[in-house]
UniProtKB/TrEMBL annotation:
It comes from the Eukaryota. It comes from Geodia barretti. InterPro entries: RpiB, RpiB_LacA_LacB, RpiB_LacA_LacB_sf. Keywords: Isomerase. This is Ribose-5-phosphate isomerase B. GO terms for molecular function: ribose-5-phosphate isomerase activity. Coiled coil: none annotated. GO terms for biological process: D-allose catabolic process; pentose-phosphate shunt, non-oxidative branch. NCBIfam families: PRK05571.1, rpiB, rpiB_lacA_lacB.
Length: 146
């Protein structure tokens, strides 16, 4: 899988670790910044990840910050992106099963590295269930759809 990954300064440590983990797992990880722990504005780094996912240049994206909240908001402003903010394995699994999440957001200040690894593993390996969930996803971009 080709995965874009971006963070602000508060998610920088996990971004580096995830780049290595994704490569070890056989994925192509593309670094969209930030490139240091120097304070920076997260939209600068997160929007390009979401846009790459929406354009189909990558299969999925991972965005990181202190809490992951702002990052998820920025990503979800891009049409075609379904970013789920995850804080445990169950939230990651449901984000894929029910929402066909194509971007994962996490907060480095809110999950341990071990939890982050488990969240990413669940998010990468869980399949979308389709069915009634597909109808609901279609309604996100087309509210008049049945």
């Amino acid at each position: 899988m080709k995965i874009a990954i971006g963070s602000d300064h508060a998610g920088f440590e996990y971004k580096g670790k995830l780049m290595s983990l994704l490569a070890y797992l056989g994925h192509e990880a593309l670094d969209y910044g930030a490139y240091s722990e120097e304070s920076t504005d997260y939209p600068e780094w997160i929007r390009p990840v979401a846009e790459a996912v929406a354009r189909g240049e990558v299969d999925r994206g991972i965005v990181l910050g202190g809490s992951g909240n702002g990052e998820a908001i920025v990503a979800n402003r891009v049409p075609g992106v379904r970013c789920t903010l995850c804080w445990n394995v169950d939230s990651a699994r449901y984000g894929r099963q029910h929402n066909d999440s194509n971007v994962l957001s996490m907060g480095q200040r809110l999950v341990t590295w071990e939890e982050a690894r488990a969240i990413v593993d669940a998010w990468l390996t869980t399949e979308f269930e389709g069915g009634r969930h597909l109808r609901r996803i279609n309604q996100i971009d087309n509210p008049d759809a049945d």
